Amino acid sequence: MAEKAIDDLMLENRKFPPSAAFKKTSLVTGTELYDEGNEDYQSFWARQASELVTWDKDWDTVCEWNLPYAKWFLGGQLNVSYNCLDRHVLAGRGDKVAFYWEGEPGESRVITYQQLLDEVSKFANSLKSLGVEKGDRVNIYLPMIPEAAVAMLACARIGAAHSVVFGGFSSQSLSDRINDAEAKVLITADGGYRRGEVFPLKPQADEAIATTPSIEKVVVVRRGNNPVDMKAGRDHWYHDLIDAASSDCPAEPMDSEQLLFLLYTSGTTGKPKGIMHTTGGYLTQVAFTHKYVFDLNPDKDIYWCTADVGWVTGHSYIVYGPLANGATSVMYEGVPNYPANDRFWSIIEKYKVSIFYTAPTAIRTFMKWGDQEPAKHDLSSLRLLGSVGEPINPEAWMWYHEHIGRGNCPIVDTWWQTETGGIMISPLPGATTLKPGSATFALPGIGMEVVDDECHHVEKGGGYLTLTQPWPAMLRGIWKDPERYQDAYWSRFEGRYFAGDGCKLDDDGYIWLLGRVDDVMNVSGHRISTTEVESALVSHPAVAEAAVVGANDATTGQAIMAYVILRTGFDVTESDLRNHVAKEIGAIAKPKAIFFTPDLPKTRSGKIMRRLLRDVAEGRNLGDTTTLADANVVSELQRRAAETPSED
Ligand code: WT7
């Protein structure tokens, strides 16, 4: 995969400097922020923290760095929900719109900062009445409705850490995450809308909490109006709680290092990692990046990030960054093709969106649906486009630029991770000359270096992406697993953070991300580990052995391909197993194709040769197979791969 990407990139030398018109209103047009960040990154971030965040108490120490643990703004106190809500209302901006929410069936809700503050305060009081205290964990399993943001901010207001689980995850995944976090309360909904239908959440949640002893109370938001069972004493309707609650709930100052949230993400083993993020540093970096990467003018811009709050992009760039900056955002509940393939473009036209942030997978899907879809709408309100989640190939970049940006919107390709908390590598749109497909440079205040296998500096060409100094929004660890924290991120290269991504530096020092170098797949911008899917497959009684690889896919970046050895005497279909994986993990982890095989290619020491399986899945000629225990296995697999139609 890396080889092909490099070939493509070699051909890419188009350049797009910021236009004079864009520069005229842009926040940053020169190198001043970079210079300041290079001079002294800690003073740089300290200035951002004091300008962008309101503190109840000043910090004593900007950064305490005990590799691999960083603490930022020690001694400082602040409240994240105060920063996202109260201070804007107190400054007279209570009537300003925080969210234009668009439901999939077509209804809309307009929520001002004052209304959001009232609702968050009421819900914070409700959580208190359910026994939630500072330091507790609260799980959130909701569709894309404003109550998701309310629930997160209410937790932040009282110092409880939230752990949001994407609504597409199965009850098993939910239960694993609740148990790992030992959450006290679960906030869910009856159901949500997707592709014109209601998908049930409460029944899934009920199944999950049958095996989660820590959950004491469940709060249910009414959205789908689908029938649900409510257990007396344990389950409460959200609206009943809100109706009974006072809107007076002063924001309590929290220590800068107070746990703000856990967010689970896949690693190279089967068990998801609970990534820990704290308060002061996280808010500083998400506010900074949201302001400068998106060149935000909070009085004029209408900003729309199409992510789901279940992923880190939703945390940092739907909830915390935009609200800290007092921005007006669009929040959309559903899929891009309901009722038709032009839904996103009709939303942009309806709300006059000026900043639009989405994922390459979505862009490639729009390309497939055709130029006529965006052409049906007036997209002239757009002035800036963003991309996140996976490498954006130059063709998709150009299509985005021409058909959505109509040739005059810069595109910010933003590289970051659940672990980094905020954007790390990205253009500053008024200052950086863009190259289609390159995330360009590390942001001011960020220390990034490309190194080779032996950790030597790479000036030009391929290598591994590493981070050389602490950054404010960096993860503070893996929940209950300090050893894994050290192993996963800090052991591959001494003294530095290894992100797991391969990349390449071109002649001008531009960075080109080339995808993961570990056993983590990136499917539609979502991280899924091969081991997780293998475990799910093997948990089916008919499966003896399974190997999973990510194969290149023109739309989703990578697609999950599974090779399965069945136990004798069992008869299952490909779709039985795909559904089984959906039940174990969630529909996002369903393999695109499953190949049944009597054997898997293994080395003589018994290790599955994933590289070969990837070659087979991608239809490539095979290189050296001499280390194989049984070379016939592969030719048999190739024959089967050519025969098996893959499901979409
Ligand atoms: C992995 C992190 C960042 C929020 C969404 C994904 C890949 C992310 C880019 C980009 C190339 C990217 C990396 C990274 N990735 N953004 N602009 N260009 N690759 O968060 O689930 O934590 O995944 O996504 O491989 O390691 P995540």
Automatic annotation (TrEMBL):
PANTHER family hit by this protein: ACETYL-COENZYME A SYNTHETASE, ACETYL-COENZYME A SYNTHETASE 1
GO CC annotations on file: cytosol
EC code(s) of this entry: 6.2.1.1
Molecular-function GO terms, alphabetical: acetate-CoA ligase activity; AMP binding; ATP binding
Keyword Lyase carried by entry: no
Domain called AMP-binding enzyme C-terminal: residue spans: 532-607
Keywords: ATP-binding, Ligase, Nucleotide-binding
Membrane-traversing stretches: none
InterPro entries recorded: Ac_CoA_lig, ACAS_N, AMP-bd_C, AMP-bd_C_sf, AMP-binding_CS, AMP-dep_synth/lig_dom, ANL_N_sf
Domain Acetyl-coenzyme A synthetase N-terminal: 32-84
Entry-linked Pfam families: ACAS_N, AMP-binding, AMP-binding_C
Assigned protein family: Belongs to the ATP-dependent AMP-binding enzyme family.
GO biological process: acetyl-CoA biosynthetic process from acetate
AMP-dependent synthetase/ligase domain: residues covered: 90-477
Annotated protein name in UniProt: acetate--CoA ligase
